[in-house]
Design a protein that fits this description.
By secondary structure, this protein is of the alpha+beta class. The chain contains 28 helices and 16 strands. The chain binds zinc ion.
């Protein structure tokens, strides 16, 4: 794990950020005893299963098994890596972190990233200044013609890139950025012919692209000239921007999207939707829908409504987005826009009320797929009809809810004249594929060497020995790391036995904070739920004894199953001792 801050400093940052305060910024928490509960921000639920322990400074969700310390919480909610999360938490409480060590490539990388982020803010300001200044008149009237008002321009930070080869370059130089950094930002490029720098975006309406925290990380440029070859131009991927992991306007939408998100094709659609009050709309950035996009959406909402352009390209894009989205727990719906080429045009023609109606009547992804299928076959031709029904059955086999499935089958039977029984037989042939693909085996199911109960005991023992100096001393004198069966816990214990001093118990919150392993995040659930014990040493010894017995029983059954007579004889001898 990349980390270039010393442990003491990370520790200071973690202790200064009270988990309950941090989580309260995202989740409405209700106090019960020394615990807090709320609706989980990582999966959709109606009754709270998200627990935060104030004294242990750990959270855990009993619905989706997410858990950890304040670091994991920020990593997950803000989509940051470990170092970024520490930086975020430090700035939250006003701890200043040292500038990265010059020798550390991590530090340099992070600093450069910060510098480029600053440059993008300066650039966004520059473009915005150009738009509202004298040279921006044409761009402003273009926006007015597209019914984008002053308020929307301000909210989305829209700007204008002047029709000049080096206006931005000169501006950034004046701001003190080095040539090298400016070139690395991608905002200015070097001409292959002359070797001279030139602004990448020229004479375009500029849309800043934000990350989830609201940093400007890229730009989209829309030409105002109708005949221009490239209508849209986007920043390329860079040190701060990965288009396959970014959704435009999610930074705005994240406050209003817990029930559903409207996914549209372009940022112009998003801007119009927000203007008309649909502030839960987001868009991709000129790239195909990815698994990362799907996971990002699943973190913020329960339902995604795809609202793509009504042309064939848009319809194809819907089908591939469905395939990816249905691998998550998200409910997926499709909105079809009649009499307009996209949401932007429809809203301007018919208004928000009619759009809302379309939205509320969005089709389930199953019905959408069926309707696409029906377009391909002629029902009057028997052969084509057979193929159609076979393919329909395949789609129905993805439906996990049996009531829903029955409704679809009934309708299909009436429509095609093929009996329900025959359709069901075809569904059975296709297999009920959906549910098995969605259920993820638990950690202990995958780590076959350990049972769920033993894993819990091992985890609890680990947390107990980190909680108190007397227990720590006793346990490390009694067992070795090999005592632990869970490979992840074994490795942790091995480390703390080798590196932790005898006079201070290991810092478990630190261990958890620095790990992204699932077994470790499960530890947080054990600790969050751990009862306070009167006699910790006694409790730890009982756990060791229980685990030893389980170990022995496992050995005996292994030998018994092996059928090796010599091993069996030895075992009986040992038992009689
Ligand atoms: Zn959850």
């Amino acid at each position: 794990m990349a980390s270039y801050y010393p442990d003491e400093l990370i520790n200071e940052v973690i202790s200064a950020n009270n988990l309950v305060d941090v989580v309260s910024g995202y989740v409405k928490l209700k106090k019960s005893g020394n615990r807090y509960m709320g609706l989980c921000p990582f999966h959709s639920e109606k009754t709270p299963s998200f627990h935060v322990s104030a004294d242990k400074q750990l959270y855990h969700c009993f619905g989706c098994n997410e858990g950890g310390s304040v670091v994991q919480f920020i990593m997950k909610t803000e989509n940051l890596d470990f170092v970024e999360a520490i930086k975020y938490l430090a700035s939250r409480v006003g701890i200043s972190l040292p500038e990265g060590n010059e020798k550390s490539s991590d530090g340099e990388y992070f600093q450069k990233k910060q510098k480029i982020l600053e440059m993008y803010v300066d650039t966004a300001r520059f473009y915005h200044g150009c738009l509202i200044g004298d040279i921006g008149k044409t761009a402003l009237s273009y926006l007015a013609q597209r019914q984008i008002d002053a308020q929307t321009i301000t909210r989305f930070g829209i700007g204008y890139s002047p029709d000049s080869y080096d206006a931005l370059f000169t501006h950034l130089k004046e701001k003190g950025y080095s040539d090298k950094l400016i070139m690395e930002s991608g905002l200015v490029r070097k001409s292959e012919k002359t070797g001279k720098p030139y602004d990448f975006f020229r004479d375009r309406v500029m849309i800043p692209i934000f990350d989830i925290r609201g940093n400007v990380i890229a730009f989209g440029g829309r030409t105002m000239v109708k005949s221009d070859g490239r209508k849209y131009m986007n920043s390329s991927d860079s040190i701060i921007f990965n288009k396959s992991k970014t959704l435009y306007a999610l930074n705005f939408a994240k406050k209003n999207c817990s029930e559903r998100i409207i996914m549209v094709e372009g940022y112009m659609d998003v801007i119009t939707l927000h203007k008309y009050g649909f502030t839960n709309a987001v868009a991709g950035l000129g790239t195909a829908f990815t698994k990362d996009h799907a996971n990002l959406l699943a973190r913020y909402t329960k339902e995604v409504v795809l609202c793509y352009d009504s042309d064939e390209a848009g319809r194809k894009a819907v089908m591939s987005a469905i395939e990816i989205l249905t691998t998550t727990q998200l409910k997926v719906k499709v909105m079809t826009i009649p009499d307009a080429k996209d949401a932007d045009e429809y809203l301007k023609l018919k208004g928000a009320v009619k759009f809302r109606k379309l939205l509320d009547n969005a089709q389930s992804h199953i019905l959408y797929k069926i309707s696409r299928l029906k377009e391909q076959y002629n029902m009057d031709n028997t052969e084509e009809k057979i193929t159609l029904v076979t393919n329909m059955a395949k789609i129905f086999s993805e439906v996990t809810n049996s009531i829903e499935r029955e409704a679809y089958v009934k309708e299909a039977s009436i429509e095609t004249g093929i009996s329900e029984d025959v359709i069901y037989a075809e569904i059975k042939k296709a297999g009920y594929s959906a549910p098995s693909a969605k259920i993820k085996p638990t950690y202990t199911q995958r780590v076959k060497s350990i049972s769920e109960g033993d894993f819990r005991t091992e985890g609890t023992l680990l947390s107990l020995m980190c909680s108190d100096i007397a227990i720590w001393r006793r346990v490390r004198n009694k067992i070795t790391a090999d005592f632990f069966e869970c490979p992840v816990l074994k490795e942790i214990v091995n480390n703390i036995f080798s590196f932790s001093p005898e006079d201070k118990p290991p810092d478990l919150i630190m261990i958890i904070s620095k790990s992204d392993n699932e077994a470790v995040s499960r530890l947080s659930s054990l600790i969050t739920n751990q009862q306070t014990v009167d006699d910790g040493i006694k409790a730890a010894e009982e756990m060791i004894e229980k685990l030893s017995k389980a170990k022995k029983a496992r050995q005996i059954s292994d030998i018994a199953n092996s059928g090796d007579p010599r091993a069996l004889a030895q075992m009986i001898k040992n038992l009689n001792k």
